[in-house]
Amino acid sequence: MIPKAWPILARAIEEGIAYGYQRAYKHTDNPTEEQVKDAIFGGVINAITEVFEIPLTEEQRVAQVNRALEPYGLRRGRYPDD
Q1: CA 79 from centroid of its chain's CA atoms
Q2: Is the pLDDT score of 80 beyond 60?
Q3: Tens-digit pLDDT profile for residues 13-69
């Protein structure tokens, strides 16, 4: 058997978005846009890495995430729970 990667990835993304959105409201009733985006991003990354193994070092992951966040003026430190 060979798993279908796209449906697995899509499900992880959907679950990560839902989890991140809920998490953004966990400690506040009115999170900022940045807090919502950060929580959703973290939820999606965590959901994806639960079902896919990404063979990168910690430094490579941080650099990759920072490149993806750069257009939005965001930056992460440690990855992924920073």
Answers
A1: 10
A2: no
A3: 999 999 999 999 998 999 999 999 999 999 999 999 999 987 878 888 888 888 888
Residues near 69 by beta carbon (within 8 Å), at least 6 away in sequence? 41, 75, 76
Ramachandran category for residue 24: left, alpha or beta (phi over 0 → left; psi -120 to 50 → alpha): alpha
Q: What is the dihedral of CA 46, 52, 53, 55, to 10 degrees?
A: -90
Pseudo-torsion of CA 8, 16, 49, 27, nearest 10°?
-160
Q: What is the CA radius of gyration of the chain?
A: 14
Residue 39, CA atoms < 13 Å, CB-side half-sphere: 17
pTM of the model: 0.65
Q: Strand ranges (DSSP E) for 1-82? A: none
